[in-house]
Design brief:
alpha+beta; 8 helices; 2 domains; 227 residues; five-stranded antiparallel beta sheet; single chain
């Protein structure tokens, strides 16, 4: 099936991606009638080709191209796994992955789609598998976890070869365990979620503990929910 994605990938010549400071999402330059952007991160944008819808093309920002080889290596170590995409190929500009359906957990909060405990447990299981394979499961957050029929699928494994724990998943799980029950099924406005995201990247500067930070976030969320 390589010929199918190779033909579709020719449209990517019209696309360039550039990174932005302060951990902001990348900027996409150019367009193609055959390509639909299905995801934007801080290092890359992901496109689906209408002529080859079973594939996703993760196009890295020109300043982040050094991450492509590392992410492809991680996928080769993880495969096969029900918790991660399959990587078919890596070029100098992009990765070719399986297209994965489903809303991200960020989308679930926006739309009020309930996030089941099973999805959270799936991420825990996936992280254990990653460690067993000698990798480091980090950079796991709301925008790179998909919900597929009540189960979790994790996107973006590019940082699994880096050392250290960024605690992003631990913080998310703690927030889910202690606070999610109060907002489950309630759509959250985009501005509120983006504000919380930006606060999170600086919480250690203004709060003595993550618990204090979460207390402030919960108050803001509850305030918004009041009629």
């Amino acid at each position: 099936m390589a010929g199918l994605w190779e033909a579709a990938s020719r449209e990517l010549v019209n696309i360039t991606v550039s990174s932005n400071p302060n951990n902001e999402p990348v900027t996409i330059h150019g367009s193609s009638p055959d390509l639909k952007c299905i995801g934007v991160g801080t290092d890359a944008a992901v496109f689906q080709a209408l002529s080859a819808p079973s594939y996703a093309f993760k196009v890295y920002a020109e300043q982040k191209l050094n991450k492509i080889k590392a992410e492809a290596q991680v996928y080769s170590i993880l495969e096969p796994s029900p918790f991660f995409s399959t990587c078919f190929a890596a070029t100098e500009k992009f990765l070719v992955l399986t297209y994965e359906e489903g809303p991200t957990l960020f989308d679930c909060l926006l739309q009020g789609i309930p996030i089941p405990a099973q999805a959270i447990q799936d991420v825990e299981t996936a992280r254990s598998i990653v460690r067993d394979k000698g990798l480091n499961p980090r950079d796991i957050h709301l925008k790179n976890i998909l919900l597929q029929q009540g189960r979790a699928k994790i996107l973006d494994v590019s940082e699994y070869i880096q050392p250290g724990n960024d605690f992003r998943w631990e913080h998310l799980k703690k927030a889910y365990d202690e606070y999610y029950q109060f907002i489950s099924g309630t759509p959250m406005p985009y501005w509120l979620l983006e504000t919380i995201r930006k606060w999170y990247h600086q919480w250690s500067k203004y709060y003595p503990s993550f618990e204090d930070f979460m207390g402030t976030v919960f108050k803001q969320t509850n305030y918004w929910k009041k009629p």
